[in-house]
Amino acid sequence: MTRTLLAATLVLSLAAPAVAGGAAAPSTQVQAATPAAVMASLKAAGYRVTMNPTSPDRDPTMTVTAGDRELQVWLSSCANGVCGRVTASSSWDYSDAEELDTEFLNEWNSNYYTQAYLYEGSVYLDSTMPIRGGYTQATLKAWMTDYLDDVSAFEDELPSE
């Protein structure tokens, strides 16, 4: 009896914030790891988000605008509409550069959690956050804030063309 009462109290106390007055979900509520929930969480964090056209053989992607910066966000390890990771990516075109000293990439990767790399004439900076099992809006917002801080710092390290 005590176990049943405790379980019922726990369920009610966890469910109450989600239904109180029909208000938006608080940032501490666990969000589903779906493209729509990630998009809604990014919008709630103040970013402009556009879902990119989907195709059956590709994971969902979106374009996120943060101030004057535009970046790509994609979800991966998706099955039945639920995804395992969200990745943010920014790039800088160096295809016209005669030679690019890439030592700064190794230096960056040894000091930051974001991943820098060179691919087909562009330099990329990516960050991935696991979302399998859910996440909170506050966590996603903090991840994006940290990523954008790293993007700004990374731009300061980029060599001039």
From TrEMBL:
Keywords: Signal. Pfam families: YbjN. This is YbjN domain-containing protein. InterPro entries: Put_sensory_transdc_reg_YbjN. Residues 1-20 form the signal peptide.
